[in-house]
Amino acid sequence: MRLAGRIGGVVGAVLGVMAVAGPALAGITQYECRFAQEPARGGGWIPEMLVLTDDDKTGETMVYDPIIKHFVGVPIKAKLEARTKSRATFSWEVKIEVRGQYSRMAYTFSHLSNGQAARMTARPGGYDNSFSGEGTCKVSKG
After folding, report:
1. What is the pTM of this model?
2. If DSSP codes are grouped into helix, strand and coil, which group holds residue 100?
3. How many whole angstroms separate alpha carbon 56 and alpha carbon 29?
């Protein structure tokens, strides 16, 4: 599955939505992350980039990447799983449809604030295998 080349559109769409929100962004942490593309590790299921916004006031977290864009078309909700001084971990699921077959891909994303690489895993529903990748994030706070 090749989703390269859609990165600019994903970032532009998310940033466009966020620009419309304007002052309402106070209290929002935004993670703009890039992941190394290693076909042997990610199998195409770890996106090259993602944008995740975490609203400290409402608790709402949204995520968007080329995989979500391809299968869903709009940002989806994510769940904050854990937050410590050194790590924030989020999860979400994407419903996948390929040639009339449906499945779910469960994602976990962890941002490590101590300068280590961010981590992402993808686990296909009904299978024992998983995909993983490491990357870097630019974090901004509203």
Report:
1. 0.79
2. coil
3. 8
